[in-house]
# Entry
Amino acid sequence: MANLFDLTGKTAVAIGGNGVLGSAMAKGLAEHGARVAIVGRNLEKAEAVVKEIIDNGGEAKAFQADVSSRDSLIKAADEIDQWSGGCDILLNAPGTNSSTPFLELEMDEYDKIMEINLKGIVLACQIFAKRMIEQDRKGSIINISSVSSTTPLSRVFTYSVSKAGLNSVTQFLAREFAPNGIRVNAIIPGFFPAEQNRKILDAERIENIMRHTPMNRFGEAEELQGATVWLASDKASSFVTGALIRVDGGFGSMTI
# Structure
């Protein structure tokens, strides 16, 4: 069974791999043998994740890129090609959020969130999938969505819109890339306290979240590793594409 999840010889590109959730998923890929490129806007944070992976016996390297810039992503892709030869697993985990009420929302803020959460992932899929196809790499693309993508949450209008769009992108690309042997899936995390959502997790909101989470707790970042490694493995999830995988403590199963 262990061979099902062996990623030895694969290169994983973790965009947003310097964040709380992205870094945990990247570490999971490394622990199962993947060589991991940690890509982030903040190179210092990316290098800190790389150090953790290397200290744990894995192989990784940090690359700087602005996910909303095509030129920046192309530069990172070129550097990754030189380092490892190409990409087999693309993990798209960048994200930003805001609690601005809808009627107070300025378009500059809306555009910034959409650029990172949706446009950036579209760009990453274009750039890396094109190279995967040209290099005849039958790989896996894993997008990180949100519970707000299926049931919009209060206080996070633009975030919810961006993640709903990401689900559509995931399923569209699953159909688009299937003939090339590239699988495209998304993980829908529940509530995992991270930098981008701590500012809206006041006592009342935490109480409401727990009321709607049957497991009655927040998730731990490491609990996303299993789904990530499963979707990355071309043995374990070879017939899985276009799927939206919930890792949410049962949040999506609650109605009242």
The mean pLDDT is 94. Helices lie at 20-31, 43-55, 70-84, 107-134, 157-177, 203-211, 225-232.
